[in-house]
Amino acid sequence: MNSNESRARGHARWERLRGSVRAGTHRASLAGGVLLAAACAEAPSTLRPASAPAHRLFVLQWWLIGIALAVMLIIGVLLLVPLRHRIRTVADAPLEEGGSTRPIAIGVVISALILIAVFIYSAVVLAADAKPDTPPKLAVKVIGHRWWWEVQYLNADSSDVHENVIGANEIHIPVGEPVRILGMSADVIHSFWVPQLQGKIDLIPGQTNVFWIRADTAGRYRGQCAEYCGLQHAHMIFWVVAQSRADFDAWLAHARAPAAAPKTPIETEGQQAFLASSCVLCHTVRGTRAGGTLGPDLTHVGSRLTIGAGTLTNTPGNLAGWIENAQSIKPGVDMPRLDLPPATLRQILAYLESLN
Amino acid sequence: MATATIETRLHRLWETPHSVYGFFASTDHKSVGKRYLVTAFVFLLAGGVEAMVMRAQLIKPANHFLSPEAYNQLFTMHGMTMIFWYASPILSGISNYFFPLWIGARDFAFPRMNMFSYWTFLMSGIVLYTGYIAGVAPDRGWFNYTPLADPLYSPGLNEKFYCIALLLLTVSTTVGAINFIVTAFKLRAPGMSIGRMPLALYGTLTASFANIFALPSLSASLAFLYLEHQFGLHFFDVAGGGRPLLWQHLFWIFAHPWVYVIVLPALSFVSMIVPTFSRRPIIGYTWNALGVVATGVLGFGVWVHHMFATGLPPMAMSFFMAGSMAVVLPSAISIFVWLVTIWHGRPVMSASMLFVLGFIFLFVIGGVDGVFTGSIPADWQVTDSYFVVSHIHYVLIGINVFPILAAFYYWLPKITGRMMSERLGKWNFWIMFIGMNIAFFPMHNLGLLGMPRRIYTYQAGLGWTATNVVISIGAYIFAFGTLLFVLNFFWSLIDGPIAGPNPWDSASLEWATPSPPPPYNFAVIPTVRSRDPLWEERLGMGKRSDVFEGPVISDEEKVTMGTTPLDGLLQQVVRFPEDSVYPFLTALAITAICYGLILGLWGLALGGALFTFFFVTGWLWYAPAPVEL
Amino acid sequence: MATTIVQPGNTPPAVTLPVNGKPHHTSGWWGMILLICTEAALFAFLLFSYFYLDAQNTLWPPPGPPDINLAMINTIILVLSSVPARLGTTAIRRGAREMLSLSIVVTMSLGLAFLIIEAIEWSTKSFTPQTDAYGSLFFTITGFHYAHVVVGMLMLLVILLRNWAGHFSARRHLAVENVMLYWHFVGVVWLFVFTTLYVTPHWWR
Ligand code: HEA
Ligand code: HEA
Ligand code: CUA
Ligand SMILES: [Cu+2]
């Protein structure tokens, strides 16, 4: 797949999405796509917090940076001033003597006071972060896999899997509401990090780390795995999509629904080809007999923002390239090169594209 | 005194023959020290070249210059080479060369173990790099987290190379640590009470004690991991009842003390250089000494700050946050001691002093980064991002490489007998200092912008690209600066002015010997009665120590003075063993065990073990002395 | 050979210093103490790992508390073996070489008994090192200790040979002091291993 070509197509798709929003289309499944266009040029920066907790960390950060710069400046000056007395060689002046250790003590005491302040401030932030102002009504189980994210929506009390709501690499949350996250791992340690929303928390096999996130402005926030997890650690990306409660509910209802039935002949052929191929060993498409769990759930793959855990934007070209040879795009990934005949590829592509 | 004859006789007694046998059998701490320095410096260059290749990969987004496999091996080998095979051994090199000279002794307490320590260090590096050459280098990062490093996710020999090469290095380091401690406590010149020791000793001593108690934690975890890989045991995998975090605890219990192990000696070298180039005795000797020791002790209580994101209970973590704040204070002491000394002195802007001043500044930057990451909530944002990469390079390059270069400019004339070029030295400093800041300061920003570490490539459009370009350019500038040092060194060997015994007019005992020192170091074991024996007459105190005249002990047998540990009172005469090839042979036999263990060649391992036993027995087989007192 | 003390000017009055001096003043003795410190730390970390996984697992030890009998016998044997070791040290301080040889032989016999019984105990276990983390730790910790006993035995063997070669005397016998010290250490460490592996499971469950 020519990368320029696919980029051009991807761009066309964004334009289309953006246009559809301007036209007032409110397809829940597309809402994220808009944000993709809006957010793609933006850095996932801790310096642009989009939630109260991240903002707290942001303020703390600036204080610490301020202290750091002040200490650097002071020590820097203290280092340069005595150079006024410098001499050229060791033979140029007699040895000095005397001198008091008092400045050392003063310096240490001042440092200690600053450090105590840093400690207290940090402890306060730590306590504030322990739990959200209001108890979360929504819980999401995030399971790290090499190298993608499985996302399951649970009931508020974390008791059970919301029927059928399993997705990948994309977490939709209602804006302004805290969401409890249950972090787990299916294999090695990963780390959940959405810089604009909160700090990192590791996903460790054998334990569930419970934390919460919240987004105070609607938007798309880039997250990336932050614990080295092997070959494709670099391409283990996900997006958090914060949308209004109404949009979110619509999305959730849509996500719960089984896969759309094929409508056109090529889609139908595609479905048959898909079900006949090895794809089903690893992928689930709810409503069909594809029930593999090694790879991401593909029930609504057509509406996803990205393919391969944020590696590519979800354009038909990219998707085709991925199915044809995921290994060339994300070397080492657990999806083998399938060498499908071009006709089959086209059919499967059409089918997957239809899975909105 | 008939010095000439005594000196020639001492020379004959202590000299190692210049032969192949002599090369492998020499126990002279000065040749051990030189070998350590050269070998460790080669590892610095190797790790540096690895970094250069990494920076080429990261210079633009979505780069295909390196495959992910290649990149992962590179950054792991870079981290391991730098932290284990460069940073600590280079300090051992300086300490090895100068320890006896600082304390007025003729050699180490265990000269043969000293040699053994060097050979095992070299062999462990060779073991590691055979893995690299064979394409199965460790690739799970220098801290090698499980379960990623468990057999299930890391089949292949890579992890075995990691475990065994490091285990061998542990042996070397432990042996060296014991040697430093015993030497410092037993062989100090008469009169050199604990409060008169050159400050350089405190760093190496503290580091050695830290090694004694911290290294076993690494050895245990390495042994566990090796057993998992070779024999299918379970320590870290959940399915078998193990826990991934056990590795993290064991590793960081070792590794945080270790990061102080690789800086405290450097700090205390600086404490030797600052007084010389401030033309005055240090102010706050006791503060500084206690501060160094306190860092070593507190360093054992902060390891969890590497695990702030693992979901441990906040109360437990807060304890370690407090520890991380407390451990700053001893460092603050050192900084202020140097500052006050410079303020009350007449600074000489030699190349060495420039590196010291640069170091202090970089230390502060790296240190305050550490405070930043020491704050739990702040760390949640920056951990495992390029912010931490910035911290580690500011501390490691700032507090290890820069002081080492300062130490080289200061002490190499003693080792080679020739001066380095001051002019080139200053260029060397400025290029490295500027390159360093261009390369590593922007990494803070990159971390705050959300770039995780250990990614072999990154996407365009995230605001990371320009910064990465700047970083790569800075890295090449820095590397060029390093090259200048190498040039300066070779220039000095060929064309450097003769140094003479004390080119910087320094105060400590090593400068009382010719440059380079004779094989026996001191004909007369000095008697020390102040902290600055060579400056006494020019300081108000008047002459007290006897550095050049005094008792000459035995020109018939290799001996030095043994003193009491604290007060430095004469206690005994210490006899040294003769040169021997056993340390080398033992190291070879142990290396055979290592390859046997890695490759599963049990015959080789067993053979190695048998030979180890024979060689050690030969090594320790002393016939009784002809005459006894 | 006499130690020459040339003595001009203001040095301390001429004294004759002992060569190497009392065992506790020698470098070798200090070296052994430090070796023991680092080995002790090693065992501390092994036992830390045991307690860590104990705390993290609900069922620990999975096969139930281990049978204590053989280990108890072994404990007694190893503690007892320190007695001849000690006798050997005091003997050589008096210069009694035969007594030293005898003590070493007795100590080694007890050590051998320990090794054999330990091997028997291992063979009675219902689990292997591969079974689970408990099995791994059990065998690794006891295995590490076993290796230390073996090394201690080898050291005893070497000083036995050296004693026969006539290396030791009342004044010169640092190797004996050191090896015996190491042997005592191996015994003391066993007490900790024993308490951890065999006693605490009975206390706590
Ligand atoms: C050279 C070794 C070295 C040194 C000396 C230090 C020094 C310190 N380090 Fe660093 N550290 C590393 C090497 C080192 N570190 C490495 C290699 C890692 C990364 C490992 C990895 O993940 O790969 C790491 C990671 C690391 C982390 C984990 C980051 C993470 O992964 O999330 C933390 C967290 O607390 C930390 C803290 C500190 C602190 C508080 C100090 C303190 O000792 C610093 C004290 C010094 C000063 C503060 C400057 C002087 C003081 C003054 C001038 C007084 C005035 C100052 C104030 C009032 C602030 N370090
Ligand atoms: C003492 C320690 C030390 C030193 C000196 C350095 C030096 C450098 N380091 Fe390194 N670094 C670490 C310790 C160190 N590093 C550690 C511990 C890690 C973490 C690893 C991990 O995550 O597991 C790390 C990780 C690390 C990363 C992050 C990788 C990642 O997370 O993906 C990067 C990226 O830029 C980097 C870059 C550099 C650069 C550009 C230098 C430069 O300063 C290098 C300068 C170059 C030289 C000093 C050599 C000069 C050589 C020549 C001029 C050629 C001459 C050649 C011959 C004569 C043959 N380092
Ligand atoms: Cu998952 Cu890194
Ligand atoms: Cu640390």
Descriptive overview:
The complex is a heterotrimer of chains A (about 350), B (about 625) and C (about 200). Chain A has about 350 residues and is an alpha+beta fold. In chain A, about 40% of the residues lie in helices and about 20% in strands. In chain A, strands 3-2-1-5-8 form a five-stranded mixed sheet. The radius of gyration of chain A is 26 Å and the shape is elongated. Chain B is mainly alpha-helical and about 625 residues long. Helix content of chain B is about 65%, strand content about 0%. Chain B contains 19 helices and two strands. Chain B has a two-stranded antiparallel ribbon. In chain B, a hairpin with a 6-residue loop joins strand 1 and strand 2. The model of chain B has no long low-confidence stretch (mean pLDDT about 90). The N terminus of chain C is likely disordered. In chain C, helix 2 runs antiparallel to helix 3, helix 2 packs antiparallel against helix 5 and helix 3 packs antiparallel against helix 4. Helix content of chain C is about 70%, strand content about 0%. Chain C is built from five helices and no strands. Chains A and B meet through helix 3 and helix 4 of A and helix 4, helix 9, helix 11, helix 12 and helix 13 of B. The complex binds heme-A (HEA) (2 copies), dinuclear copper ion and copper (II) ion. One heme-A (HEA) binds next to helix 3, helix 4, helix 15 and helix 17 of chain B. Dinuclear copper ion binds next to loops of chain A.
What tags apply to this protein structure?
heterotrimer, A: 356 residues, alpha+beta, five-stranded mixed sheet, 10 helices, 18% strand, disordered N terminus, C: 205 residues, mainly alpha, 5 helices, 72% helix, elongated, binds heme-A, binds dinuclear copper ion, binds copper (II) ion
Strand content of chain A: 15-25%
From the alpha carbons, calculate the radius of gyration of chain C and give it in angstroms.
22 Å
- First-to-last CA distance of chain C: 66 Å
Rounded mean pLDDT score of chain C: 89
Could you name the ranges of chain C where pLDDT drops below 50 across 5 or more consecutive residues?
1-14
Class derived from helix and strand content of chain A: alpha+beta
Largest sheet of chain C: none
